[in-house]
Amino acid sequence: MTAEKLLLKEFLLTDESKTELLGAVLSELCPGDTTIYLTGDLGAGKTTMTRGLVRACGYHGIVKSPTYTLVEEYHVGERDIYHFDLYRLNDPEELEMMGIRDYFSAGSIRIIEWPSKGEGILPDADLIVNLVIADNQRRAEISAMTPKGRAVLEPLFFPKAIPEQVVI
Ligand SMILES: Nc1ncnc2c1ncn2[C@@H]1O[C@H](COP(=O)(O)OP(=O)(O)O)[C@@H](O)[C@H]1O
Ligand SMILES: [Mg+2]
To answer: Residue ranges of the alpha helices (H) in 10-122?
Structure first.
């Protein structure tokens, strides 16, 4: 990806609940039709953050990692959420075969773990959340890559505007 980031915001996530909370805050701020890349090592908290986002939308079932299925989908209320994990993708071309374009044409939130595996085929991100393991905690670096992503990120500079965010 060659796109430049428009805005960057960092958070320290002191435990797992804070990682979920960040997902919940993003769910509140993201319009339909948003693409979020999640980057960071195995165990950094990408699936944990997704769980927070999906649950905050009102889904009460299990949010499991789509490592083997490539994609899990959630349809809650007005929202369609597609959670991809491309870790086991051998070739980005496989995304064409699974009909990736259909997931991206609808108004939906697309969350993609290991986006580097789909480079060249995967549509660009509005937001990139990079999770960094810092001893027993995590650091989140959120980059806005498009004007839409910037509109999601801007309120995070004013924590009092978002009740949940005060405790991150
Ligand atoms: N902020 C945090 N501080 C400490 N541990 C965390 C934090 N967020 C998540 N974890 C833990 O890190 C692990 C992350 O796993 P997972 O979300 O599956 O990572 P990934 O999808 O990036 O491979 C889980 O064991 C979770 O409990
Ligand atoms: Mg994962």
So the answer is: 16-29, 46-56, 93-97, 100-105
